[in-house]
Amino acid sequence: MRSRIGTAAARVAVLLLVLAGLWALWEGYRKLWESTGWTWPFPVNSTTMPHLHDIVGALFDPIREGEPLLARYMLDAALFTAKEAAVGFLIGATVGFLLGALIARFGVLQRGIMPYVVASQTIPILALAPIVVVGLGSVSIAGWTPKDWMRVSVIAAYLTFFPVTVNTVRGLRSADPAAVELMQSYAAREWSIFWKLRVPAAMPYLFSAFKVAATASVVGAVIGELPSSIQDGLGGWIINFNQYYALEPENLWAVNLVAALLGIAFFLLVVLVEKLVVHHPPEQLV
Fold it and tell me: In sequence order, what are the residues at sequence separation of 6 or more whose Cβ sits closer than 8 angstroms to the Cβ of residue 116?
């Protein structure tokens, strides 16, 4: 019990030291550039690089007098974007796993499908987002049309499926060939080999992909909100504050900070699930 408390305290102390270091680096950089008058790579002033305490303080100021604090709006917006990102993550992870499992099972698919999977990620997401979000708005299935946030989730899923697909293929093929042959010698079905041997061996690879995909899903959700004119999420606030950036740059930086914290929260959630599911390194799973 004491060792766990000590470990937790050490991690908290390291976190605080890292945050203090980042704060010192930001403020030190700002002070040095202002005092020397350097303009490379960009001029440093209150507009281009506000004080961190001003950015954090903006969250605890009302946008207009008599209205709730900005943090209140940011909480609602973060929850809305989190819903889009979570749905997109689940869809993308499911599609990526199923596609990776098929490619790992049938080698011909790797040559036939994998090049297109890789090519799909070369399309700029800013160009693809309006096509998908606006295009799906005209799609009707038995009189049902996807809601705005559902269409945004498709963008999040698009950024999610690629790392999951690639790592699923690698993970499923990482099972020890001797163990596979042993199970086959006992007349084990391919389905049993898949779930009892290949999937456990692939878990570390899958969670490595999930960590990347978790943060990517948040990015996809925010970007997907931009062309859909959704005002309830963080993307809508980014557009609004971008218009008044010259007057109140702290507000836009505050939204960016909340978006970063949301991505970190998704990442830490995956890490927590990984600790509950994966108990051994890859070489001990087979």
Answer: none
Query: What does residue 280 show for φ and ψ, rounded to 5 degrees?
Result: -135, 150
Transcribe 91-114 into DSSP letters. HHHHHHHHHHHHHHH-HHHHHHTH
How many CB atoms lie under 10 A from the CB of residue 15? 10
Tens of pLDDT, residue by residue over 94-146, are: 999 999 999 998 878 888 888 888 888 888 888 888 888 888 877 777 778 88
Cis amide linkage into residue 227, ω under 30° from 0: no
52-284 folds as MetI-like fold (1.10.3720)
Angle at 205 (CA atoms; ends 204, 208), nearest 5 degrees:
85
Distance CA 237, CA 253 (A): 11
Q: Is 170 helix (H, G, I), strand (E, B) or coil?
A: helix
pTM of this prediction?
0.89
Domain boundaries, the chain: 1-49, 52-284
